[in-house]
Amino acid sequence: MIPGRHGDNRGWFSEVYRADRLAQAGIANLFVQDNQSFSAPAGTLRGLHFQTPPAAQAKLVRVLAGAILDVAVDIRRSSPTFGKYVAVRLDAEGGEQLFVPHGFAHGFCTLEPNTMVAYKVDAYYSPAHDRAIAWNDPEIGISWPVGEAEASLSAKDRAAPRLADAPELF
Q1: How many H helices and E strands in the chain?
Q2: Where is the active site (predicted)?
Q3: Element (DSSP H or E) covering residue 22
Q4: How far apart are CA 168 and CA 170, in angstroms?
Q5: Under 8 Å between Cβ of 84 and 48
Q6: Catalytic sites, residue numbers
Q7: Is the pTM of this model over 0.70?
Q8: How big is the chain by its Cα radius of gyration, in Å?
Q9: C-alpha angle with apex 168: 28 to 123, nearest 5 degrees?
Q10: What is the DSSP letter of 163?
């Protein structure tokens, strides 16, 4: 989804969130929290994160500065696309947004230094339901723009289990 931009010699204006337009696209989630992250180095990798029910989160992701490779992995064991992923480039210049539904793990890798990402979620953060799966799980096979040696990761993300080792989540 790419919100329209109305430009002139001063720059541009965009309605980045309109519940009615999202509903027309089949997204009727009520977003309750806005999150924002800043990553100084290119190659910062955050993910693959999700929350389990009853605190599962859907996300609407966009980039405020810089660029990312944004990834969503289907972790619903009963789904025909279980373990499959989508990966898209989102950047501040293009204004693209990605909707990540319930039952998907989400992560991204910064492609430029000083990247800022914003996302809306439809459930509040719940530490008791916060989970992660390995960003580099070979069975998922995500083609990240960085290797293990170059990726800037949190300790949580380094220790995340493979999807096959995670219990049934959705």
Answers
A1: 2, 11
A2: 49, 119
A3: helix 19-24
A4: 6
A5: no
A6: 49, 119
A7: yes
A8: 16
A9: 30
A10: G
